[in-house]
Amino acid sequence: MNKPHKKLDAWATAVDLAQLVYKATDRSPTKEQFGLANQARRAAVSIPSNIAEGAARQTKKEFVQFLHISKGSLSELDTQLELARRLEYLGQIEWEALNELLERVDRMLSGLIRHLRAKR
Question: Measured between alpha carbons, how far is 47 from 67 in angstroms, rounded to an integer?
């Protein structure tokens, strides 16, 4: 099976972000395991999943569409992490590490979209 997504730094970094979100949400209160923690995990997994699906598509236009979906999931995750921080489910240092990685993925996705659009 050809796996073009595994060659993308954006995919690898998004997987790192998802892994960090899983670790951070492991410490969420029990009452949140099926609420905010679950939503954050789903959004985090959606980011590299959509990068992978887009990379496997036949056209650059389709790939860009899936990258935009990844950016949407990234925005969802940003909101969920902000709420977790405000509810004090995340410490400041943990939130800063997650936020830094989230912003890095955002920049990478934006750059990849620009690159693919320029190649048309």
Answer: 8
Tokens 């598509």 sit on residue: 57
Q: Specify the CATH number for the domain of residue 85.
A: 1.20.1440.60
Does position 120 have pLDDT exceeding 70, yes or no?
Answer: no
Long-range contacts of 114-118 (CB under 8 A, 24+ apart): 116/60, 116/63, 116/64, 116/67, 117/60, 117/64
| Spatial contact of 73 and 47, defined as CB atoms under 8 Å apart | yes
**Residue 18: domain span:** 4-118
Alpha carbon distance 68, 113 (integer Å): 8
C-alpha to C-alpha distance for 70 and 65, rounded to whole angstroms: 9
pLDDT digits (tens, 9 = 90+) for 100-109: 999 999 999 9
Type and span of the H or E element at 62 = helix 60-86
At a CB cut-off of 8 Å and minimum separation 6, what does 113 contact?
A: 64, 67, 68
